[in-house]
């Protein structure tokens, strides 16, 4: 937060600066001006939230300065300091949204109280603005998602709804023909959402779209939507193949640098119209299917060694019957290791293994007479680590469906105890699933049933309770406290704390210290 002190007397400016402990109000920048003209320039450049202003000054006095603030639409809170008691000064203060009117000489305690009231008003105003922005953002996001769903529905319906597609593109101002199709397949999306977005997929998708908007800003037209596991971008037809390659590479690099997401990509070499978008998607998919899941471009594969997971069927079935999760994990890991040793594994080949394993899972489910539906392995998993985790979790779900006993309840209690003892660690569902040999879905479901709250809500509440205790009973900095309770970014910690407590960490500490 910023404050601007305006007075033609240097000793008054310095007195105001030294009289207040600005840090307790989260005010980190202090600006000085000798008169209204200089102050107005600072306001235009720095946009301070709080202004402490004298009335009687040369060049531009307080009245003219406050009127200029009002006319230009600045929303700073204003505290007027003056030895003059004319009503016109007080009226000017009110018009400029002033919070108080102090007569010189003033008591330091009165100034401090006035600053405190002003800061509270600023925070309340920002919260209201933030809430309004949040609501508008939610509406915008909802409309964006609705249009995406409409586009996918129109494209994938039995008889493609070309009129619906045409209407969506027209409403967005996008040309109806002569465009290219650019397709991206996120490889490590699940891990990135868990680790960097605290499981918030909506925030992740918002970040993806922001990067697209920034990178494709030079283009006159583009249209983005998600279809199945893909990010699809339609680009204007007057872009050359070289430019398309540039934007493709730039998007991949930017996503990786900003949000750690890795992608495979492909783009159509010919132009399409709104009636054959899926043909363009299909062309781009062909390029993606050639991508090497293992990285690099080498194709040195020992063709004599044919790998299949089917020959492990009896071992898998026996492990499932014994509910031996560790042995199942070992079987899967050894198979993945063999795949890695091939040196080259196209996404198309990995899809063949996924289909093979899905058939195996269906057959084993029938043998075990399992009635519930197991979600099959996605054909578009393109990161071998995520593929291994997904397969492991499917088999864990099959074990868990065989029966829930006292040991599973003990495991849920153990998970709770682990969370309570490791608040400073980067804990998420995927991490807990790997550590305790349960699927994320199972842990989430059983924890909610046992404790009537979600794991992330429980973890956040414990972290905030500990943060409150440290703020009240220690001299640790807010950065140190944020790290102790598991947040590397103190700004993000501050946002979570404000959402939980209704005030910033520094405000919470200040109130507790005043009691």
Automatic annotation (TrEMBL):
Statement: the UniProt record of this protein carries the keyword Methyltransferase: no
GO MF annotation list: DNA-binding transcription factor activity; sequence-specific DNA binding
Domain HTH araC/xylS-type intervals: 413-511
Entry's transmembrane regions: none
Domain Response regulatory residues, every copy: 2-119
InterPro entries: CheY-like_superfamily, Homeodomain-like_sf, HTH_AraC, HTH_AraC-typ_CS, Sig_transdc_resp-reg_receiver, Tscrpt_reg_AraC-type_HTH
Gene3D superfamilies the UniProt entry points to: 3.40.50.2300, Homeodomain-like
Modified residues annotated as 4-aspartylphosphate in this record: 54
GO biological process, one term: phosphorelay signal transduction system
Keywords, alphabetical: DNA-binding, Phosphoprotein, Transcription, Transcription regulation
Matches recorded under PANTHER family: ARAC-FAMILY TRANSCRIPTIONAL REGULATOR, HTH-TYPE TRANSCRIPTIONAL ACTIVATOR RHAS
Record's protein name: Response regulator
Organism of this sequence: Paenibacillus azoreducens
């Amino acid at each position: 937060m910023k404050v601007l002190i305006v007075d033609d007397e240097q000793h008054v400016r310095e007195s105001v600066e030294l009289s207040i402990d600005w840090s307790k109000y989260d005010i980190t920048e202090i600006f000085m001006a000798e008169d209204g003209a200089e102050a107005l320039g600072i306001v235009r450049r720095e946009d301070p939230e709080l202004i402490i202003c004298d009335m009687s000054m040369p060049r531009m006095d307080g009245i003219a300065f406050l009127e200029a603030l009002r006319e230009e639409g600045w929303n700073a809170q204003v505290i007027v300091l003056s030895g003059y008691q004319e009503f016109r000064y007080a009226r000017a203060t009110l018009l400029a949204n002033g919070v108080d009117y102090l007569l010189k000489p003033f008591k330091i305690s009165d100034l401090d109280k006035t600053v405190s009231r002003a800061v509270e008003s600023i925070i309340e105003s920002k919260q209201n603005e933030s809430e309004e922005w949040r609501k508008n953002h939610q509406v915008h996001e909802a409309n964006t998602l609705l249009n995406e769903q409409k586009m996918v529905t129109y494209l994938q319906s039995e008889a493609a709804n070309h009129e619906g597609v045409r209407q969506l593109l027209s409403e967005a101002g996008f040309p109806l023909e002569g465009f290219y199709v650019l397709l991206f397949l996120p490889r490590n999306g699940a891990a990135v959402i868990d680790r960097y977005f605290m499981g918030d997929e909506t925030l992740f998708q918002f970040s993806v779209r922001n990067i697209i908007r920034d990178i494709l800003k030079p283009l006159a037209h583009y249209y983005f939507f998600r279809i199945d596991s893909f990010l699809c971008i339609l680009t204007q037809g007057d872009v050359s193949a070289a430019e398309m390659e540039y934007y493709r590479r730039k998007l991949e690099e930017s996503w990786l640098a900003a949000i750690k997401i890795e992608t495979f990509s492909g783009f159509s070499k010919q132009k399409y119209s709104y009636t054959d978008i899926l043909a363009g998607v299909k062309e781009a998919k062909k390029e993606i299917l050639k991508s090497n899941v293992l990285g690099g471009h080498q194709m040195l594969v020992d063709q004599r060694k044919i790998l299949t997971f089917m020959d492990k069927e009896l071992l898998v079935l026996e492990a499932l019957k014994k509910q031996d999760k560790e042995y199942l994990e070992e079987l899967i890991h050894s198979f993945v290791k063999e795949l890695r040793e091939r040196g080259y594994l196209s996404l198309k080949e990995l899809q063949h293994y996924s289909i093979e394993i899905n058939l195996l899972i269906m057959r084993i489910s029938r043998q075990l007479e399992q009635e519930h539906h197991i979600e099959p392995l996605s054909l578009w998993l393109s990161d071998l680590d995520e593929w291994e985790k997904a397969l492991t979790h499917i088999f864990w779900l099959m074990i868990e469906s065989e029966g829930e006993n006292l040991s599973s309840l003990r495991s849920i209690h153990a998970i709770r105890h682990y969370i309570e003892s490791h608040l400073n660690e980067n804990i998420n569902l995927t991490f807990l699933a790997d550590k305790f040999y349960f699927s994320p879905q199972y842990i989430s479901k059983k924890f909610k049933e046992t404790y009537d709250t979600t794991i992330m809500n429980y973890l956040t509440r414990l972290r905030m309770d500990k943060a409150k205790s440290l703020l009240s009973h220690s001299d640790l900095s807010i950065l140190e406290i944020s790290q102790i309770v598991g947040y590397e970014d103190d700004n993000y910690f501050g946002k979570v704390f404000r959402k939980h407590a209704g005030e910033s960490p520094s405000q919470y500490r200040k109130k507790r210290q005043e009691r």
